[in-house]
Amino acid sequence: MAGFLHDFLHENPLPGDVLVPVPVHRKRERERGFNQSSLLTHELGRLNGLPVIDDCLVRSTYTPPQARTSNVIDRLANVAGAFACVDVRLRGRQVILIDDVSTSGATLNACAGVLKSAGAAAVWGLVLALEL
Question: For the chain, which domains are there?
Fold first, then answer.
C-alpha cells in the first residue's frame, strides 16, 4: 500500500521534508498489536528516502474510532484535544502527515493544528483512502 502513496508522491510532489504517522492511543495499539499508519509511514519513508518521526505527535486521549461516529460534528468533537506534540523536533519542518483512511478530515485537522501550534512550518495530509 505504501507503494501507491510513493507513486502518488512521485507524480504529485509535496514540499515535505519529514513523514509523521497519525498516532493511535497506546491502548488501541496494544489491542491491535500495531499502528497501521505507522507501518505505512515507515515503508513510505523507506521507499522515498524521507525521514520518519513517529514519537513526537502522540494521541494522549483514548477515543472511539472515527468510523463509529455518525456525523462530522461528532467526529470533530471526538478528536478535539486528543493529540499532543511532545517535543520540538518538528519546529520549522514541512510535515507530511500520513493516515490510512480519512472519514471527514477531523483527525488530520486535529493533528495538523497541534503540529502547527508546536511550530511546524507546514502540514500536508496524505491518506491511502477516503470514506465518501
Answer: 2-11+18-130 (3.40.50.2020)
